[in-house]
Amino acid sequence: MNHIVIMAGGIGSRFWPMSTPEFPKQFVDVLGTGKTMIQMTVERFAPLCPMDNFWVVTSKDYVHIVKQQLPHLPEGNILAEPAMRNTAPCIAYACWKIRQKDPYANVVVTPSDALVLDVNEFRKVIGRALDFTVSGQRIVTVGIKPTRPETGYGYIATGALEGDGPICKVDSFREKPALEVAKEYLKAGNYLWNAGIFVWNIDTITESVKVYNPDLAARMDVMAQAFGTADEAKVVEEVFPTCEKISIDYAVMEKAPYIYTIPGDFGWSDVGTWGSLWTLLPHDAHGNAVVGENVRLNECRGCIVHAPGASSVVLQGLEDCIVVERNGRLLICRLSEEQRIKDFVNGR
Amino acid sequence: MNHIVIMAGGIGSRFWPMSTPEFPKQFVDVLGTGKTMIQMTVERFAPLCPMDNFWVVTSKDYVHIVKQQLPHLPEGNILAEPAMRNTAPCIAYACWKIRQKDPYANVVVTPSDALVLDVNEFRKVIGRALDFTVSGQRIVTVGIKPTRPETGYGYIATGALEGDGPICKVDSFREKPALEVAKEYLKAGNYLWNAGIFVWNIDTITESVKVYNPDLAARMDVMAQAFGTADEAKVVEEVFPTCEKISIDYAVMEKAPYIYTIPGDFGWSDVGTWGSLWTLLPHDAHGNAVVGENVRLNECRGCIVHAPGASSVVLQGLEDCIVVERNGRLLICRLSEEQRIKDFVNGR
Question: Number of residue pairs across A and B with CB atoms under 8 Å?
Answer without folding.
Answer: 100
